[in-house]
Design goal:
With 249 residues, this protein is mainly alpha-helical. Helix content is 73%, strand content 0%. The radius of gyration is 17 Å and the shape is globular.
Amino acid sequence: MSVARRCAEARLALMLLTRLPAGRFEGAAPEMSAARWAYPLAGLPVAVIGWAVLAGAGTLGAAPLVAAFAALGAMALATGGLHHDGLADFADGMGGRDRARRLEIMRDSRIGSYGVLALILALGLGAASLAELPAGSKAGAALMLVAVASRLAMLVVLDTLRPARADGLGHGAAGARGRSAWLPGVALALLLCAVLGLAGVMALLAMALVAALVAWRARRRLGGQTGDVLGAVQLCAETVGWVVLAAAL
């Protein structure tokens, strides 16, 4: 596999998971399934943006909670709220009476009470946790670890659960399954974990647990994964990672 092809796949992952500028493809773009390995890496620029806003707001004298909400807003803008939309749809869909109705609810662009509550909890816990992170490089390492590991969790769920639909993002991104696609994300997560020490290990374990719980729920209630399930996995794992790091660092 050429370096140019790998770069194209990384750019596609950035296009799929963020709203950050990544140029245009001249000729055929890589398949979505081929870009799976770069999903964890797409979290790095999002984390850097969040860290810059968090540190910048703090330097300007903003209260820690205000700075934290500003960082969350910046990261949501960077991703286009993609994962937030997934969590809201997933939460709403879980109230459906049967599998078909749950999938139908998740396709509805309107947000219900379960979705609103899920977002309030995720944003509230995220902001409260970011506000407690130590300033400086540790905050940056924490944000990057959580960004990478939460998207790695999303990739693992994508590869281990079959698609619940015959179309959609969850189906299009699934392809040839192989754990080799996990290696870049695993290596980067472990490297960042080494910087944070025991707190990083605790965060990784907690994120893996919550991702497994969301995946288990999706398998039982939907029969597999969808794009909304993957978004819910990412945001739930991310929020739990911040909570653990805020307590452990």
